[in-house]
Amino acid sequence: MRALYDRLKDRFQLGELTRQRPDLGFVTVGRDHLRALLVELKDVEGFTHLVLFTAVDWLEDGQFQLTYLLNNRATAQDLGVRLMIPREGASMDTIHDLWPTAETYQRELYEMFGIDFPGSPRVDEDFILEGWTDLPPNRRDFDTKEYSEATFAERAGRESHDPRDHMKQKLYPDGE
Amino acid sequence: MFKIEPDRSQYPAHNPDGSCDIDLSSGKYVKIWHGPNHPGITGNMSLELTICGDEVVEGRTRVGYLHRGFEKLMERRTFIQVFPIVCRVCVPEPDLNEYCYAAAIEELAGIEVPDYANWMRTLILEMGRFNSYMMYLGGQSGSLGMGVIGQWTTYVRDLMLDRFEELTGARVYHMFILPGGVRDVLPDGFAARMEETLKTAERYLDDVDKVMFQNAVFNKRTRGVGYIDPALFDSYGVTGPTARAGGATTDVRRDAPYLKYDELDFEPVTGTDSDIWARADVRRRDTRLSIDLIRQILVKMQKPGEYFAKIPNVLHWKIPYGETYIRGESSRGEYGYYLVTDGTGYPRRINVRGPSYTHAMALLERLIVNTNISDVGALMVSLHTYPPEIER
Would residue A122 count as lying in a domain? Predict the structure, then answer.
């Protein structure tokens, strides 16, 4: 993993390598170098399998972290490529031409995080949520409880009791 | 050999890029929904098919019928509160979710799991895999009209659920693999009862071999149908038995051994034809492999020892910043959990990588074009998809 990092570090201006396990590492890369790095990893370094592609919302920093996790089947190594993009008007280049399956991931990220991927097929088509108009629900500032309370009516007939008073009333209805 | 259907790709007329100009008002095409209320669909999913005659010209996978927002729910809960949710991502094989989540937490929190607990986890995972294959064999034969095989495999699965019940106290969602270890040791006489269950299972699998795999109808309808080019495996994220049926040798249990798989003696089961028959055959032999592995585990397990590591007070458990990915081999392919923590008592992000996510969306939509409408059910089941993994 270290040898691979040393080979690619200067060409793609990679950030520090985080070695989570001997077979799993994470690197940060800038937006300008991302595509070239992915192509290099896929075509030259043997990281041909896109394991997953997802986002992490760092609301406090105003950024989304995109994680492209690639696997090299021959050496059984994983490399997570991290990229930070601003939350405001979040948009990223599509990679569906490198891995056709990325189309699904990008549709999901568009719907769940509101990250746009211009040029990705059917990216604005509903994926899981039909007719959703609210904030993308996987963003940290979307409050599921608040949404439920505003959208759905409370079920009638439910009342809560203080357990102590309730048992007292049940066992000693006359107040003895 | 069985005759392969003639190439019907020239009808209707295709554009040079392989697409069709679909004009629904022309009367040549009909749009139909295959699912969600259809016996030929695996659970809460549907396929929106455009057909011309009996040929599918376009297929779209529609999910969302089961969306409960598991990943979002997990972010609002403490690390131990997440644990009852993870198993619900996959009904037929929930244990791998528990393992992946527990292992991710243990790695980021620096917890060492006792040896005996790892053996127990390996046992549970193989039992879960066996159960999942039983559901698959029933579903695959059912999709081609052989309903009785599903009844046999459901019976055998029920026997294994009895073993689960005596081991974990639950039949479907076991919640046995906790961060730190497992909840209990093997009950007395468990190995003998398990052996009895495995013998019954083998007897029924012999019957399935004869009735399903030597059945002329099954052979005729599955050989050469639903072929996946091995060159597409990496670009479409194809893993597990679906890839092994096309000659790939990928099996996480052997490529990146976790738990006790490096101490077990086995070789990944592979096929060559990459069609529906080959995928069913690989899973049938993988079921036998699971039976063999369960026997090996019960022999190699040492006497009950410590089965739970000391973990911090779960009510105030904070895990420092970190991120990791834990993978395991499920009955459908590579399964994994990507966990990001930020130093608080709640996970920052949990992402579930289910094999159905890649198989049932981009891959199925590609495979389904030019198939006969009567093969759609069999083709979809042959990818062994579970929709909750897509919409989690």
Answer: yes
